[in-house]
Amino acid sequence: MSEKKLMVKELGKLKISEEKKKLVTLKSSDQQEFVVEESIILQSDMIKNTIEDCELDSINLPNVDGKTLGKVIEYCNKHASQNGDLSKFDEEFLDVGQAVLFDLIMAANYLSLKGLVDKICRKVASMMKGKSPEEIREILEMENDFEPEQEKEIRAENAWAFENYCGSGGASGGASGSGGASGSGGAKGSGGASSSGCVKGSGSGCASGSGGAGSSGCASGSGGASGVASGSGGV
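RE: above sequence
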C-alpha cells in the first residue's frame, strides 16, 4: 500500500473515532456552558447516573459556578488522559487559596467525584494538623458561638481530648460552633461540611456530620482528622 493511501486510511479512522465521541454540555449556576466528552465527565457518579437515567446531553449544575466547574473539568481531563503517577499534578492542582479549595470540595461532593473529594480532604486535614481548636476555627472561618461557661464545661467533660490535640492522621482538637465547613461560598454555614450535612469519603479524612467537624465527636477518616471535636457541634 502506498504511503498516500495509508495516510488517507488513517485519517479516515481518526474521523470515525471523532464522530463516535459523545459530547455532553454542562451548564453552571452562572449560566456558563462547558462542552465535554461524555467518557471524561463520567468520572462523576452524579452525572453518570443522570445520563443513564434520563439520557440527557445537557445537564444543569445549579450548585457549581463556572469558575469551579472549569477547574473540575480540568481535573477530570487530566485523570482521563493519563494513567501514570499524577501526584505532582494533584499537588499543584490543589495549591490554591482556601476559598477556592472549599468551593472545589463542595463541587466535588455534589458531583460525587470521590477521588477528588478524598484528595481535598487530605489537603484540608494537613492544613489542620497540630492546630489548636482556636486555630482550626480561624482556618475554617468559624465563629465560636459557645458562651465562656459552656466552653469551659465542654473542655472539662472532655479533658482527655485537649491534653494532646496533635492527632496522628491530621487535624485535631476540632472546630467549634454550630456551623461547619459548609456553604456554597466556602467554610461557613450551618449545614455541616456540605449542603447535605457532610462531605463523605471512605477514610478520606474529611469532616463529616451535621454539626460541623463531627457532631458525633470526631472529624472522621483514616487520612484526616484524628483529633476530637466534641460537644454538640464541635469544641
